[in-house]
Design a protein that fits this description.
The chain contains 4 helices and 4 strands, in the order αββββααα. The protein has 145 residues and is an alpha+beta fold. It has a 4-stranded antiparallel sheet, with helices on one face.
């Protein structure tokens, strides 16, 4: 008969080829954020305290019969007070950097108040606040007539 030899099966080498270890360099953007320095933390705390104190300051200034009107973001506020001399109005405009412009005006009659309202740029920026301002101003004049 045939003298055939069956091939001998040898175990194969590992199917995964091992490469030498390569470490991925970590990008600075992927790294954890550095902790804030003491100066930056102090500045954040100061701004937080300043925002809290301005709301307290507005609460202290408002007396009985006064009206405080503010825009939705708080950058513009109006304090209206009816006095025996006319309508006292304090307009405060705040900027994000902490600067503030305060204007105080006294209107002796409705006509002067309406003239000022006609040139106030707020009527284009925040129409709802401007309408409230006109209504409250006219109501204050009606009280002291």
């Amino acid at each position: 008969m045939n003298n055939l030899q069956l091939p001998e099966v040898t175990p194969s080498a590992s199917a995964v080829v091992t490469r030498r270890s390569v470490k991925r360099r970590v990008d600075p953007i992927d790294a954890l954020a550095r902790p804030l320095g003491s100066k930056r933390l102090a500045l954040i705390a100061k701004r937080t305290n300043a925002a809290a104190s301005t709301s307290d300051r507005n609460a202290v200034r408002i007396a009985a019969g006064d009206t405080l009107l503010a825009s939705h973001d708080g950058t513009v506020t109006f304090l209206l007070r009816a006095t025996c001399y006319g309508l006292l109005m304090e307009r405060t405009q705040r900027q994000a950097s902490g600067m503030r412009l305060v204007q105080t005006m006294v209107f002796h009659d409705v006509k002067s108040f309406d003239l000022w309202c006609a040139v106030e740029p707020l009527r284009f920026d925040d129409g709802l606040l401007f309408n409230k301002l006109e209504r409250e101003g006219h109501a204050a004049f009606a009280i002291h007539v």
